[in-house]
Amino acid sequence: MNPPIPGIHHVTAIASDPQQNIDFYTGVLGLRLVKLTVNFDDPRAYHLYYGDGTGDPGTVLTFFSWPGARRGQPGAGQIGITSFAVPPDSLPYWRHRLSAAGVRLDTDLTASGDRFGQRILTFQDHDGMTLELVEVEGAAERPFWQGAEVPAPHALRGFQGVTLEEEGFEATRHFLTDVMGFAQAGEDGQVFRFTTGDDVPGSVIDVRTAPSLLPGRIAVGSVHHVAWRVPDDSAQVAWRDMLVSAGLNVTPVLDRQYFHSIYFNEPGGVIFEIATDPPGFTTDESLETLGSHLKLPPWLEPRRDLIERSLPPVRLPGVPSAR
Ligand code: ZN
Fold it and tell me: Which of these, 180, 287, 162, 288, lies nearest to 226 by C-alpha position?
């Protein structure tokens, strides 16, 4: 058996305007921009990384920015909800803060309310991406970004988890438990809960099954994939070997500069990644200056002038004039 997966490494989604994205996730939600770089597969687009103060695995939400691109269509084979943990009794604060920022709160009783006995607040960002804040016992003990204006008792404490939207169920259930090693942890209506077994950020995977759900289309406002964390390269290779043996069409190991990655589809169609904890976001800039300049991997650095000219300028939090 492979080393267990402690939880989520990061979640990657697609945004339209990069400035709106930066202003919302740093200014309103109070995350730290821990890396400003480009999509390594298409360097004409920004890749923005948000997280706690250091960008610890389990706290990192990333966006490819596609200004002017069309919106995605929610549906089967996608991650429908990305959930952050907040300390208990934080939702009244967030309801007020989000309303004051003009965020449309989901008042549908099947959305905001309770799930698995936890209080949740559901809303969408400016691109239509669905987010949740979930009151989690013990979340107050977890690290958070102390440089934001959100008061410490209510600051986001990394991910609670993700919700997979699926047309079927059995193949995904089998895969999550027998292959990924997650534990089935209960059901609430049409939502089936799995956990990695560890009480860490990003340890919850909900599967919402709806047999009539049509396939979605991933574009602006959609989550592109969820990445699960492994401690090092050798654990990743062990997982890759096992996934290949299980019949999955897994990519080779790809160098993402801040982690190493493999990608594959789970049986319901959601893109999964397995990413290494090291080297992390301080590999090419100091902890103090994370996210304050456009960083490029060594293989794109020779094209920096061209890349910078093709990207829209952005204002960064706490940086007067950097790109
Ligand atoms: Zn990823």
Answer: 162
Range of the domain at 128: 8-322
Structural domains in the chain (count): 1
Which ranges of the chain have pLDDT less than 70? 1, 107-112, 319-323
96 Cα: distance to centroid of ligand 1 (angstroms): 32
Residue 68 Cα to ligand 1 middle (Å): 22
Residue 315 sits in a domain whose CATH number is: 3.10.180.10
Please give the distance, rounded to the nearest whole angstrom, from the Cα atom of residue 7 to the centre of ligand 1: 14
Q: Is residue 248 part of a domain?
A: yes
For CA atoms 184, 188, 189, 195, the dihedral sign is negative
Predicted structure pTM score = 0.96
The pair of structure tokens assigned to 10 is: 């990061």
Q: What is the pLDDT of residue 109?
A: 45
Distance 254 CA to ligand 1 centre (A): 10
